[in-house]
Amino acid sequence: MNDLAAQFRDTVEDWLKRTGTPPARLGIDALCDPSFVLRLRRGRVPRVDTADKVLVFIGEEPLGPAFRAEIEAFIEITRTKPYVLGLDAAGDPSFVARLRRGVSPRLDTVGRVRAWMATRCNESERAAIHEIAAGGPAAPRRCDTNDGDASPDNDKEGGTSMSGQPTKYLGTREAAAFLGLSPRTLDRYRVTGEGPAFHRFGSRILYARADLEAWAAARRRTSTSDDGGENGT
Questions:
Q1: In sequence order, which residues have a C-beta less than 8 Å from that of residue 108 and are 6 or more positions away?
Q2: Is the pTM of this model over 0.70?
């Protein structure tokens, strides 16, 4: 895992070099602190809210909202207790509770927590967490295990993942629209096993776009006399 504080310093330095802005001017305009960049160069590790003010000022995406979304998605998808995450990842069992109250951690703490979470979930779970953090389907905070998509947020497709790649996972309604079926048909197919492969993350159902394409390709027909087609509506 890369050093998040070092990444932030590099981003600031790149912007200063590209724009020719004096370091003190950036500090004054973004934070009313002319010595901010100097202290950053000396090794100061800012808190997320401070870093976000600078990032927004120089036209970059803030870190805080995505990190908080990652935390909530990780808890929902892996069913990890918040105090366990805080204790094991940050050495503070109240870390998540404080984060939810608006307390801003330092960038090095964010880096440690992200590294810990990355080792506690598989590739599919990591992809789903990143999609949620990038603006994809929000993780519902509920205890039911309904196979359907009761929450409208579960049907939204994120535009891009954190790596900038197109969204790979779709909710049931998006997947049904992609296949030209109804959501109810996909609900039924999950019970009968006739439909495409799907992923269950906690109480959420997601479909990988590649699985939908493979399932559709397997049902390609060249004439109406071929009785192997699907007629889901």
A1: 3, 4, 5, 45
A2: no
